[in-house]
Design brief:
Number of domains: 4
Strand content: 15-25%
Number of strands: 23
CATH superfamily of the largest domain: Zn peptidases
Largest sheet: 9 strands, mixed
Radius of gyration: 28 Å
Distance between the termini: 19 Å
Shape: elongated
CATH class of the largest domain: Alpha Beta
CATH architecture of the largest domain: 3-Layer(aba) Sandwich
């Protein structure tokens, strides 16, 4: 693959001057100034000429969308608005009509919360009886806290587990916490060694903090104080270092408080003695002789966003049926989500100015095809540009929840995400198992191109096609792979492969022209055993091994990684990892999320063995995985 970075290196090498040669006399006339070209002076022109007009069109779109002027296209920003204006200008120029508000508006507006970024704690005040606590030393406000100002008695609720193993419960049926602040132990009942009674190593699903907090709030609690068990082998030590965003959302003040603070306030008990009673199920809800004041003011991170849509109207008997072609146009701005480089500009060239550029090209190609075609019956095509994908597929989720067309009339949805780095002429196509006809059609489509396709049957993955598949629509997902630039400030236009993008545009155009004209596809569910895995969290070209799992985007876990699919022929499948497994440890190291898993994969090499602690059906088991190359 010949990237533009290679061209830049050649040009630099061939334009070095020799000392003393920099100053020469100019001709007497400007019109006669025309230095002879040297070798490689025209390398960029040659590259694009040989790559064809589609590569030029792709790069023109890409360089505007990934320009620093747009600030990384974070939803709701001025740069996002400029990107939207550019998209709309092109759709209008290509003869499309607005998709929304009875075809009068290009935009579908919505609000979303940034689940993967902690909310901003604007202010807080906490006191127990008449002692004010110090923020950051004695307590922190958790990211699932609501806004509130309450003063109320404190009730100890043990581990706040409604139904544990062997009939264990922290509550009686009649327990009512109305008007009380719940003091809750983290995790679950422990044995004499401080290990979980139900899991041995780490913890069982009963330790889920969201469920525990929901249990006390349903019983009327007006605030929650979380405290670590004093005697806990596998638990975390100390307070959360920042406003944690792992525990969902609530409508009451929620704080994490130290054991020392509670011990200083108690008179007849200690946290150690209360924990011992909770461990042995000797205590359910127990009023304490304490009052607490919790004041919290929290900004939940709500943001404004807007999808963009244009319609190419069909004709004849198929005009009321649809093909959807889409890709997300947002990126992470200055690192508001999904990056280890917060505060730095992320241009988002490959992710996903590349996909946006291809959708724009296809809108032109198909519009011209419709204008010239003698076919009397063609499906309508909706071109969609999704916002807020990076924060959790919000744009596509909003469209599927509030569609402007009958989704049962959609023949297929094509999703184009990260297609700017074609290597070895090999493109990944996901969703190949979501329609019965794909087994025949896909080899025909790919066979008419110069590309090789790696097929993945699953209709799910960390991109927008997932929401359409889950609404029972056939999907195809085009993806050229991760690079070291992914979600870093280095993802810039010159690191992409415009010639490869042109080849891909031609292939998808062939696919689209078939899907607007031929028989309606028959939707089918794809096998979970062959879902695309690890492309954004579990595996990376920066690693020499690949695990082969699809992590869930909506897992409500305090720690660990929920598997939403296992790819065929990978290390994960060979080891017997399954849908629904939760990965807790890697060779004894806690897997707190996808980044930690990626760190472990990057440190491994093919042939290495790893022991993964897996939570399956409420039990924690060790599974040995032999790692293979991607």
């Amino acid at each position: 693959m010949f990237h533009l970075t290679s061209i830049a290196i050649l040009l630099t090498f061939n334009t070095l001057s020799h000392p003393g040669d920099q100053i020469v006399d100019a001709p007497t006339s400007v019109r006669s100034f025309s230095p002879e070209s040297e070798v490689n002076d025209d390398i960029i022109e040659t590259y694009f000429t040989q790559s064809g007009p589609l590569s030029i069109e792709f790069y023109e779109h890409l360089t505007l969308l990934a320009n620093p002027w747009l600030g990384g296209r974070q939803p709701g920003t001025e740069g996002s608005g400029i990107a939207g204006e550019y998209i709309v200008w092109n759709l209008s120029k290509n003869g499309l009509t607005p998709a929304f508000e009875d075809q009068t508006d290009w935009y579908q507006r919505f609000d979303f919360n940034v689940d993967s970024a902690p909310p901003e704690i604007l202010s807080s005040f906490v006191a127990i009886d008449d002692i004010a606590l110090v923020d950051g030393r004695d307590y922190v406000v958790l990211g699932n806290s609501g806004n509130g100002d309450v003063t109320a008695p404190v009730t100890f609720v043990g581990y706040a587990i409604e139904e544990g193993e062997d009939g264990y419960s922290s509550f009686d049926e009649a327990d009512d916490l109305t008007g009380q602040i719940a003091l809750m132990l983290r995790y679950e009942p422990l044995d004499e060694n401080g290990a979980s009674q139900w899991a041995g190593r780490r913890f069982s699903p009963h330790a889920n903090i969201r469920e525990k907090m929901n249990a006390v709030i349903r019983r009327g609690a007006v605030g929650v104080m979380l405290v670590n068990p004093p005697h806990c082998r596998d638990g975390r030590i100390g307070l959360e270092t920042s406003a944690s965003n792992r525990f969902g959302t609530t409508n009451v003040p929620v704080i994490h408080v130290t054991e020392d603070v509670i011990n200083a306030a108690l008179t007849d008990e200690t946290m150690q003695s209360l924990q011992s009673k909770a461990d042995s199920s000797e205590v359910q809800t127990t009023p304490l002789m304490l009052n607490a004041t919790l004041k919290t003011e929290v900004s939940t991170g709500g943001m404004q966003a807007k999808n963009i849509g244009g319609i190419l109207k069909g004709k004849g008997d198929l005009a009321d049926e649809w093909l959807i072609i889409g890709g997300h146009y947002d990126h992470v701005g200055y690192g508001y989500v999904g990056t280890r480089h917060p505060g730095q500009l992320h241009h988002g060239a490959d992710d996903n100015a590349s996909g946006t550029s291809l959708v724009l090209i296809l809108s032109r190609l198909l519009s011209e095809y419709y204008a010239q075609s003698d076919d009397e019956s063609l499906r309508s095509v909706m071109f969609l540009f999704f916002d807020a994908e990076e924060a959790g597929l919000h744009g596509s989720a909003h469209f599927v929840k509030y569609p402007i067309i009958n989704l049962s009339n959609v023949n297929a949805m094509i999703n184009i995400d990260m297609v700017g780095n074609l290597s070895q002429n090999n493109v990944l196509i996901g969703g190949t198992g979501t329609a019965e006809q794909f087994d025949v059609k896909i080899p025909e489509w790919v066979g008419s191109s110069v590309l090789t396709a790696s097929l993945m049957p699953s209709g799910t993955g960390p991109s927008d096609h997932t929401n359409f598949y889950q609404a029972d629509m056939p999907v195809l997902f085009f993806f050229t792979g991760l690079t070291d630039e992914y979600h870093t400030p280095k993802d810039q236009p010159f690191t992409t492969n415009p010639a490869g993008a042109a080849k891909l545009a031609s292939l998808i155009n062939t696919v689209a022209r078939d899907l607007v004209d031929e028989e309606k596809l028959s939707f089918q569910t794809s096998s979970s055993s062959s879902r695309r895995g690890g492309s954004r969290s579990g595996g990376s070209p920066a690693a020499s091994v690949r695990l082969g799992i699809q992590p869930s985007y909506s897992a409500e876990l305090e720690t660990g990684i929920l598997i939403n699919g296992v790819s065929e022929g990978t290390s994960a499948e060979d080891a017997g990892l399954q849908d629904g497994d939760v990965l807790l440890e890697w060779n004894g190291i806690e897997l707190t999320g996808g980044m930690e898993l990626m760190n472990q994969l990057r440190a491994a090499k093919p042939g290495d063995k790893a022991t993964i602690l897996v939570q399956r059906d409420g039990q924690n088991i060790d599974i040995e995985v032999t790692l293979k190359a991607p």
